[in-house]
Amino acid sequence: MALKYLYVPSGVQEGKAYGVLPNSANADFSFFSRSSAGSRVDKNGFINTGLGLGSEEVTNGGFDSASNWNIINSSGASTQITGGYLRIQTDGAYTLVEQSNVMQSGKQYTLSYDVTESDEGSLVIEIDGGGSITLPLTTSVGSHTIDFTSQRTTLAFKRGGGALDIKIDNVSVREITEVNTDVPRLDYTGGGCPSLLLEPESTNKIGYSEDFTQSSWTKEGNPTIESNVEISPTGSLNGSYLKAPVGTNISPRIVYYFGCASGQTYTGSIFVKKDNVDYIRLLSTGATASTLNAYYNVSNGTLGTSGSPDKAKIEDYGNGWYRLSLVINTTQNTGSATFRVQLAKGDGAPTSTYDGTEKNIIFGAQLEQKSYATSYIPNYGTAAGVTRSGDSGANTGDISSAINEEEGVFFAYMAAHTSEATSFPAWISLSEGTSNNSYISIRYNTGADSIQVRYLANGGSAVQISTTTIDRSNFNKIAFRWKANDFSLWINGSLIQTQTTWDIITANNLNRLSLELPSGGQRLYAKVREIRIYDKYESDSEMENLTTI
Fold this sequence. Notes:
mainly beta, Jelly Rolls, 3 domains, nine-stranded antiparallel beta sheet, eight-stranded antiparallel beta sheet, 44 strands, 1% helix, elongated
C-alpha cells in the first residue's frame, strides 16, 4: 500500500503535534492557542491536571525567628514562635498568626505545612477579606497540603473552635499556575497507545471539586468526610473518605445545589474507589419533575439496573478508581437543582442500615453543561466555576505530495466523545485550505452516531455517504476510498456503501489536512489515534485489513 501521510500521537510541543510522514515540518499539525490548562491521563496512568506551582510566597516559613509574622493573643492564649516552630496554644481564647502580602485575591494557591505535635483542637485559615470564611486544616501529626482560592492577601491561622495546642513548621504557600497551556494533550486513558485529546470548552461549576468538607457540599444522612487519606487518580494524597454514620434506613450522601433552566443538559461526575461499600448512587432532584438516579457497582465497574442506567456511565481509571457520570436533562427552571453522591449497599437500595464503619473513597467532582463528562477540571473555591478553553483547530503545512486527487484512501482511527446528537458536525478534512471549493472529509455529523464521508469536487454540490449504526464513542477505523466510478466508505473491516457517479477533484486542489472544516470552524472534538493518506486505490481485501480492529 502506498502510504504517503501518517500521523500517530507521539511528539508534541507548544502549539504543535508532530507528524511521522512525510519527513518534513509540513506533516506536523500547527495548533492555535488553547490558552488554558487541560487534564489528561499520562503514560503512568495518573491524571495530569496541567497545573504547576509558582515560587514560594511565604517568608520565614521555617520559623527560624519571629520575624515576618504577627501574633495576636487574647487572655488565655499563648501562641508563640520558639525553637524553630510555631506553637498555637489557647484554652479557647482568640489567637491569630498572620503574615501580610502573601497572596493575591482571586488566585488559587497550595498551602503545605508540617504538624510536629498535636494534642487537641481545630485549626483554620481565613480565606476572605473579613475573616468570616475559613478553611479547616488537618491537625494530625504529619505533612499536609490543601488547595484553595484566596479572597485576601494575608495568610492567617487561627483556632477553629475550642481549645487548641499544636506545633507547626515548614509553612509554604505557592500559587497554582497553568502550565503547558498550548501543548496538545496525549491521553493514555485505558492504557496502551495514546490518543490526541481534542475537547470543547467546558466549565466545572462545582466550587470545591476536591474538598468535600466545605459548606457548599450539604451533608444529608450525617456522613463524615475525612480528607487527604488516600492516593487519588492524580497520584497525590488527596482522596477523601465518604463515611456513613451509625443509623437505620438512612441515605448518607453529599449534595451540591445549582441553578438551571428548562431544556438544558448537564453532566455530573465524580471519581470513586471502593473501600468496603459495593455501590454508589448518583442522583439529581429539582432539575426534572421526578428524581433522576443511577446505581454504580464500584466493586466490579458495572452499572446497576435500577433508576436510569441509560443516563449513566462508569469508566475504569485504574488502581481501583472509577469515574461515575450522570446526564441530567432539565425540564424545570429552578435555583435548587441538586447533584448528589450517596453510599448504597445494593442496586436499587436508596436507604440501608449502617454500623459506622462503611465508607468509600471519593475525588474530583464535576458539574458541567455538557451531554457527557469531559476531562477533569479542578476547582479550588472559584464560585463562578473554572473553565477549560476548547482545543482549537489544527492544520498541517503543504502536503500536496501525499495526496493524489485521482485516486487514494483517507483513513482515521478515532472516537467521538459522545454517541448522542450534537449541535455541529466535527471534521477531519483534506482541502486547499482557504475555501470549500473542493474537499474530502471524514466527519461526525450532528445526528446520533452519525459517521459520514462528505465530498465536494470543483465547486459543485457536496455529496456524502453516512451510517448511524456504529457507536461512534468507541474507537473506530474509518476509511474513504476513491477513484473514478468507485467511492466507498469502510468502517471496522466492513464496506458501508459505494457511490459510482461522483466527480473526481481536479489535480492540485488538495494540499492540506485540517482538524476542522476546510474554511475553519466545526472543529474536531474527539480522541485521535491515527490518520493516514494513501495515494493509490486499494483493493477490497486491503481495505478490509486496513480497517479491521
